[in-house]
Amino acid sequence: MKKEKFEMPWVEKYRPRSINDMALPTAKVSGNKVNLAEDLKHFVINFFEEMENINEQNKKIKLYNRSHEEKDQKEALKMPPEKSAILLEGPPGIGKTTIVYALANDLNMEVIETNASDTRTRNTIEAKLKETVKSRGIMDFITEIKRKLILIDEIDGIYGVTDRGAVPTVIELIENTQFPIFLCSNEYKQNLQPLYNKIKRYEINPLSKNETLKTIKKILSKEKITGLAEDDLNLIVDKNSGDLRGIINDLQGISQGNLDENNKELIMRLYRDSTEEIFSLIRDLFQKPQSLRDARNLTDKSDVDYNFLYKWVHENLPTFIKLNVELEYAYENLSLADEIFGRIRRNQYWSLLPYFYDLFTGGVVLSRKGRSPKEGFRRIAFPRYSSTSFFSLSSSESDLIEKIQEKYSISEYEIVQDLLPFLKIYCETSRKALKEVSEWLELDTKEKKLLK
């Protein structure tokens, strides 16, 4: 394996450990600009002060209720939801989760993180978080470890008929938590309105271009990279539309290549080829490897970001693996990979990254025991939920999205994540369906191929 493959990703290497080290994005609450760092610190400190007072009063209420009849008993006090949780809303890659981790580090707290996109139903949310938000574990009392801060990322990943109980469950958790809760969302979603009515919503904006350039120039200086001109940096920033994580990932990928006086072609090729590369890589991963070494060789040749690749493998796993026993084995390896990456993130154990790769690529794809050399075409799907905003679009894809937006007021993110997968499935049902959609959107031949 290539040594550089498992070097610490720059997005982690240069992730701020303190809010004081961050170039904080601007934030608004109800249209009014706020001091994000001060507001969030005050929220956490105030939560624990009030919770301590409420718990003391509830002890007295419990004692009172033991000696009184049911009709005379008092209800336990609860923290108001607006003091228990807050929502950070803004485009992917602008640093919402980084802010939460930096704040926790400043306050010497432990972050308990879950992703709503992976925990989308009432039962799974309750199973993962219900006990966490209620109380400290027995070892917490013995060892007096850090206070907890709960982070629920991609809360806008909860939607649809099957998830009707999920939002009420999150609200119930907020109303009963013993720890402050931070929720992160990529964008406004109508179905989250009950949640918006209960808690404060911070609208987080991307960093200004000047602040972004300052940040990436510091990274390049520390990495001793000198081959990128100002125009190159501007092109990378513009192409990522404010996604700092995407910018840093691209910088690392480009800087590991051969830089010269004209890097524009290299930068443009990176964007033009990335979508095609990931489709090809996923199909090859599930169909070609006969051993773990084969899977490693495929990922070694790819420049696709590890977190991005993980999401694509997760999304497309059921397309290629059908037998229940193989699915169970594949998801078990995926779960282990997720657990290892959690340790990497928490403890900065980047030497474990090869094992993360092996489990979510080789460990998953090699779950397929019965393979046929003539399996037929398998359609690759975009990950339904993604915090990376790494969707690189061809000119035909961009044109298709523009035509959809002429019909509906909908974001590019929602089109790629939700609408296009639906349209593809619908258009596969019959030629008539494809003809209807094509005529409706006035598609040309290249755009029609995207829906086949």
Describe this structure in words.
There is one protein chain. The protein is α/β, with parallel strands linked by helices. It folds into three domains: 24-204, 3-Layer(aba) Sandwich (Rossmann fold); 289-382, no CATH class; 395-449, no CATH class. Helices cover 56% and strands 8% of the residues. The chain contains 20 helices and seven strands. Strands 2-1-7-3-6-5-4 form a seven-stranded mixed sheet, with helices on both faces. β5 (147-153), α7 and β6 (181-185) form a beta-alpha-beta unit. α12 (264-287) packs parallel to α14 (306-320) and α14 (306-320) runs parallel beside α16 (353-365).
SSE map:
Elements (H helix, E strand, L loop, with lengths): L9 H4 L13 E3 L2 E3 L1 H31 L14 H4 E5 L6 H11 L2 E7 L6 H13 L3 H6 L3 E7 L12 H11 L4 E5 L7 H4 L3 E5 L4 H14 L7 H11 L3 H12 L8 H24 L4 H9 L5 H15 L3 H24 L5 H13 L29 H13 L4 H17 L2 H11 L3 H5 L3
Parallel strand pairs: 3-6, 3-7, 4-5, 5-6
Antiparallel strand pairs: 1-2, 1-7
Provide key terms for this protein.
single chain; 452 residues; alpha/beta; Rossmann fold; 3 domains; 7-stranded mixed sheet; 7 strands; 8% strand; globular; disordered N terminus
CATH topology of the largest domain: Rossmann fold
Major sheet, described briefly?
7 strands, mixed
The H/E string reads HEEHHEHEHHEHEHEHHHHHHHHHHHH
Quaternary organisation of the protein chains = single chain
Rounded to the nearest angstrom, the radius of gyration is: 24 Å
Q: Judging by the overall fold, what is the CATH architecture of the largest domain?
A: 3-Layer(aba) Sandwich
> Beta-strand percentage?
5-15%
CATH superfamily descriptor of the largest domain: P-loop containing nucleotide triphosphate hydrolases
Q: Residue ranges: pLDDT <50 for 5 or more in a row?
A: 1-6, 135-144, 385-392
Count of individual beta strands: 7
Number of helices: 20
> What do the pLDDT scores average to?
77
